[in-house]
Every structure is written in structure tokens, then in C-alpha cells.
Amino acid sequence: MALLRPLNSRFAIRALLVWGLLVVLAAGALASWRYQSLLSTLETESNVLYRLASQRADQHDAHLTALSAVANATDDPGHSLFLDVAATIAHFYPRIVDIQLIPLAVGKKPVGLGALSPETTALLRESVLRSQGQMVLMADPERHGFYILGKRSPNTADARYGLMLVIDARQLLADASHFWSEPGVFLRLSLPKGPLLVGQAGSDAELYFSKALASPSQPLILATGMALGPADLFPMAETTLVLLLLSAAYLVVLAAWRQRVRTRLALEQARLSALESRLAHASRVNALGEMASGLAHELTQPLTAILAQTQASRRIVAQSSSTPLLPVLDETVAQAKRASAILERFRNWSRPQALSVGCFDIRDALHNVRALLASQAALSKTRLMFELPSYPVLVEADPVEMEQVIFNLVRNGLDAVTGQEAGQVTVSLNQTDTQLIIDVADNGPGVLPALRDSLFTPFTTSRPDGTGLGLALSQRLIERAHGEVFLLEDAPETTFRIILPVKHEPMESAG
């Protein structure tokens, strides 16, 4: 009993150390999962906001084009039609706070929805003249958070006006989700290499997203981020649940560990299993002996007959009568062939077969596949096309295996287009200096994205009645012929490509 106390004490210390290590590992896993989850949420919300702002920015180009056409359509000195259109645009698009038509001739006053200072007017006129036809993008010198988008009107060397939109940058990001109002989340919108329009600079966010808007005329930089704290990585509910589950599981394992008798039972079971394996091996050896005994018995009868017939032949020859000798000798040959056949079957059963590799014209295999599947194509009202060269294309492989691979791919294409109008499966054969290329294409619905990475893995199929072994077997057969088969990624139709090495050998020697 005195010895048990220090043993129990050391066991308790070790158990606490292991539990502490498991807690640390679980906390790291939880923090990593939370980090990836928050990053995914930030990216998703940022992409939604990015698309929204880009679409709104693209609308400004259309407004400038329409306003330019209206401004140059009439010679009204008051530009009343232009002002009406500008007021309508500002009404339906509140982010456009001002629209100005600035004559490029010095001394003439601008026409617009608001009032411009002489300094701003001069700045805008100079920017348009210096632009040489491209869009003008600049911060509003009079208001923070606003920017100006302008262009020539018309956009030629003989331009008469400078056309300007004053846009509230905050309105580009209006109607965003409530995610952007949560604590620790920030967003900024700034001109490219220019001042900040929305948000505050200097944020110490951990997660960060930055991208220019998809607008050629307004590539504003949208930046978003999220500052992470311990409460974000270790939320109370999830952390408590993980600790409870971990502690419960650890206690169960700890209790099981102390039941050492189970280890002894497991060792005993392993010993019995090893004994059973040895007995099964002995049974297989006995079965092999019985087979050998049966084989000897089967060979005894024809060999005995051969001996008897040979002895009879000797007696007949001794009597100098050659006519009855022929049937006896024929029977002797037949029995000898029987014994040889039995031995040959035994050899074929006990050793693997060699491949029947030869040099042949791959067009023959394609013709056979077309003949085999023509009726199926006709029943499904599918157009089956074979584009083959007029000259022989030699390849060194097993003809039956190559035909099996092509048949499988073409039949898959026919199944893919079954039930749709104007279904078509095309098989094309092309040859380069070093390889031949066979493409099997169909205009069906295509391969599901979830199946592309595991397409040639056994038991992968999209058909309810499919086994998922056809493509895996085809890949194995093609690789045995030193080739490859794969799905083309960027083809307009679903296309499987087979590449095999070309056999540079005259057709006479191949035949």
C-alpha cells in the first residue's frame, strides 16, 4: 500500500499534464477554425460590396455619355434640356450631387445643378483640356468624401465643353449589409494613389481585403478589414462546449486505460488470430496438394493409353501389316495432345498471361467501335462522327484493349447526350511526329465540377446505374500502352483526350 501512493500520485500528475496538452491543442484548433470562418465571412461580404460599388460606378459612364449627347444636340444658350435631364439623373441617383457643363472657352460660365467657385471652374477646365480624351478622376476640392468624374464633350480635339459629375463616395457603399456595422469591422474607399474618400486611415485590422473597382473610368480602391481579439477567436459558448467535450472524452479514455486486463485479452485474441491464420495457410497447402494429386490422376489415364497404343503398334509392325497401324497411331497422337492440353491449362492457371502487344493501325479499332455503336446512336437520334486521316496511323499496343478504351469513351458520350435534341459525339484522330491524339467530344451537359478531380478514381460516377469503373480501367489500359488519357479543361465541349506514342514502322512490316 505504501508503494501504491507514490504510483497513484505520479499517475495523477501525468494525467493532468496530458489533459493540459489536449486543452492547448483544442484551443489552437478552435482558434484556427474561427480565424478561417471570419476570413471567409469577410471575403464574402467584401466581394458583395465590391460588386455593388463597381456596378454603380459603371452607371456614371452611361450618364456622362447621355448628358454629352444632350448638350451637343441643340444650340440653346441656356441648356434647358440639359438641365432637365441632369435634374432627373440627380433625382433617381442621389449619390450624384452635382452635374456641371463647363465651356472650355475662357470667360464663359458653367451651367449645372449647383454653383461652382471660379477656382474650381478653372481647375476643372484645365483638367479636361489636359486629359487628351481620357476620363478625369479627382477629389472634390471643396467637399471631403466627394469625387469628380469628367470628360470632354464631344470627346474630340474640337471639344466645346467639359462635362462633370460630382459623386458622393459614401453613397457608392450605401445599402450594405449589417455586417459592416459590427465592432472591429472597417472599410475604406480611396482614389487610386490619391486621398481617402470613405473611412479612416491607420486601422490595425488583422484580416485585410483590398481591390480596385471593376470600372475602367473609376478604379477606386476598396479596402476592408477586421480587428480580431481573444473574444473573436475564443467565443464563450463554443469554447465552453469544446472544453466539456474534451474533458468528458479524456475521462472515458483515462478510465479505459486503467483497465489493463483488456490489454491481456487483446493479446490473447491476437495469438488466437495468428493461430487461425496458420491453420488457414495449412488448409491452402493441403488444397494445393489435392489439386496436384488430381492433376497426376488426370495425366495417368492418357499416358497409360499412350503406352498401350504404342505397344499395340509394335505388335502390328512385327506382323508386317501396315494398314491397321494408322488408326492406332492416330489415337496415340490424340492422347498425347490431351496430356499436353492438360499441362498447358495448368501452366496458364498458375502464371500470369503476357500481353498480346503488336503494331497495328489504330483506325481499325475506331472502325470497329463505330460499327458496334452505330445502332445505339441511331436509337438515341445522336449524330456519331469519326474524323480519321486517310493514311495508316500505327501504334504499338494491344488492339483489343485499345478498342475497349475507345468503346468506353464513345459510349459514355452517347449516354451523356441521350434525351437531348441535336446530340452529337465526335471522334477525331490526329498524328504528330512523336504521338497520336484521339479526342472523344460530346455536346452534352458536361462533367460536374465536383467529379473532375476524382474522375478516374474507381467507383466515381454520376449515373445512378453506373459502376464507376470504366474510366479507371481505361486509364490503366492506356498507361500500359505508355500513353495517357485525361479530360480537357478549356474545351468548348466535353472532350476526353488519349495520347499514345507513334510507332514509326512501315505498314508492310507491321502487317
From TrEMBL:
Q: Which CDD domains match?
A: HisKA (cd00082)
The organism's superkingdom is given as Bacteria
* Pfam families per UniProt: HATPase_c, HisKA
Q: Give the PROSITE patterns listed for this entry.
A: HIS_KIN
Instruction: State which Enzyme Commission number(s) the record gives.
Output: 2.7.13.3
Keyword annotations: ATP-binding, Kinase, Membrane, Nucleotide-binding, Phosphoprotein, Transferase, Transmembrane, Transmembrane helix, Two-component regulatory system
Instruction: Give TM segment ranges.
Output: 240-257
Name the catalysed reactions: ATP + protein L-histidine = ADP + protein N-phospho-L-histidine
Q: Which Gene3D superfamilies match?
A: 1.10.287.130, Histidine kinase-like ATPase, C-terminal domain
Question: Mind listing the GO molecular function terms for this protein?
Answer: kinase activity
Histidine kinase domain location is 294-504
Q: What is this protein called?
A: histidine kinase
* Taxonomic source organism: Alcaligenes ammonioxydans
